[in-house]
Amino acid sequence: MDNHRFLEVTRRICGSLDIDEALYDVFLYLKQELPLDAILITIYEMNPRQARIFAMAEETGGFIVDEPISLSETAWKGIGRWLDESRSGTIPWLRNQAHPINREILQIVRTGTPSIQARAIDEFCSITCALKVKRTIIGNLTLAAAGANHYDSSHADIIRQLNEPFAIALSNARRYMDLLRDHQALQRDAQKMVGDTLIGADSGLRNVRQLIEQVAPTTSPVLLLGETGTGKEVVANEIHKFSRRSAGPLIRVNCSAIPENLIDSELFGHEKGAFTGAFETAHGRFERAHEGTLFLDEVGELPPAAQAKLLRVLQSGEFERVGGGRSLRADVRIIAATHRDLASMVREGQFRQDLWYRLNVFPITIPPLRERKQDIPTMVDYFIHQKCEEMNLPHRPAPAPGALEKLADYDWPGNVRELQNIVERALIVSGGSPLEFQGFHTPGMAQTPALPAHEDRVATLDEVTEAHIRTTLEKTRGRIGGKGGTADLLGLHPSTLRSRLKKSGIPYGRTNNTES
Ligand SMILES: Nc1ncnc2c1ncn2[C@@H]1O[C@H](COP(=O)(O)OP(=O)(O)OP(=O)(O)O)[C@@H](O)[C@H]1O
């Protein structure tokens, strides 16, 4: 193959990360140069053993197949031998249509390929080459054509030369597909955890909605204030969604959940070898949020050193990775949130005043649920729908008569999160009958969560643990951290306790207690 042709094939196979498109582009070109009716990339893995046709191209287009195929025992023995041989050798192996493995694969491909399926297997010829990156085989490239014995040593030379660009393209395409899959799964999870709908935007949160609309298109920092569980993260999502950065990432940092000694590295990244365990250079959340939004949740929990560094980034737009001297820049819009009273933390010297000024450009206070009880029926409806889908429940029960009124009489110290939990619990115990909501309690009273009506029902460990946490909180008057605080008494790390409280919808850090 001359240089010009080699460059053209390389340009085409590396021209797109979508391997189906790239392969089809190559197919169209090579078809003018040699006998060709299909190109396929297959993958064999020995541990666990599986063979897959990864992608193919033929007359009608290029396709990602990525489906397992089953091969005979004889074929697998042959594959095992080849893999061993090629690991030691420098030249990737070749084999032709006469080989039983090629015949088996062609047989499978033929049945699903309109342009060649009418032909008998003996009417094909093919040539296959292992795709190697360094000494590792990552797949095989096969050229197939209708008719017998079309391929000779000149074609073997061509396919050998194509080994490297095809191997690189395959390796990139697989990584790219893995990343896409991870990304989609993470987005699905994130949306499940924090719903993507702001319920109450037309009633109890109308003002909040107006503020979101005003600030979203700008690049100004936003400070979200409100008790725990009021929906600060949902509002942050909305701001990002309606901003010009919506195509960029929304990266969340829970400032209270990162151990103090790792905060710098989490926010700003670290260079390889910066500390024990830093095996690779890592991008921090600032870098990952480039051209998007960084949501600093629980910003009131940032320790003083991290507050100083955050201030510097907000002022200059510059930061350094831990262990690196280079200044980096990231184009990031900041949304910060806290359930704490930042103004009084500033007065008490617990939060930097200059940082507070920087963050407090556009504050949005999200009212507690007790001040917008008109939203409760719509929320209950929404959560019933959401939870039934998540739990795969066949029936969607409605609230029992009078049940919604009961909810409206309650003060909701855990806000929307608590309501969400109450609905979920009601769905679990209802067995499909109308929902009686139980398990909410008067603020400040230690209580065992109400159990369903069956007298012989044994409380679950989670319920008992929850009740014990409530009792201990009551004893410490809601204090989480410090000596003699709830976390200390329960033998837990304060952030572990906080996430547990959050998950269970137990209010903390407010009413008659003080967080520390
Ligand atoms: N207006 C709303 N519409 C729909 N769902 C909501 C709304 N407000 C809150 N939720 C749901 O309630 C739960 C708690 O909301 P979120 O995590 O946003 O609260 P938060 O104020 O950030 O709490 P914290 O301060 O404890 O982090 C989430 O599952 C969220 O989806």
Automatic annotation (TrEMBL):
Keyword ATP-binding: yes
Key words, A-Z: Activator, ATP-binding, DNA-binding, Nucleotide-binding, Transcription, Transcription regulation
Domain Sigma-54 factor interaction intervals: 198-428
SMART domains linked: AAA (SM00382)
Keyword Transcription regulation set for record: yes
InterPro entries linked to this entry: AAA+_ATPase (IPR003593), AAA_lid_NorR (IPR058031), GAF-like_dom_sf (IPR029016), Homeodomain-like_sf (IPR009057), P-loop_NTPase (IPR027417), Sigma_54_int (IPR002078), Sigma_54_int_dom_ATP-bd_1 (IPR025662), Sigma_54_int_dom_ATP-bd_2 (IPR025943)
Name under which the protein is recorded: ATPase AAA
Origin organism lineage: Bacteria, Pseudomonadati, Thermodesulfobacteriota, Desulfobacteria, Desulfobacterales
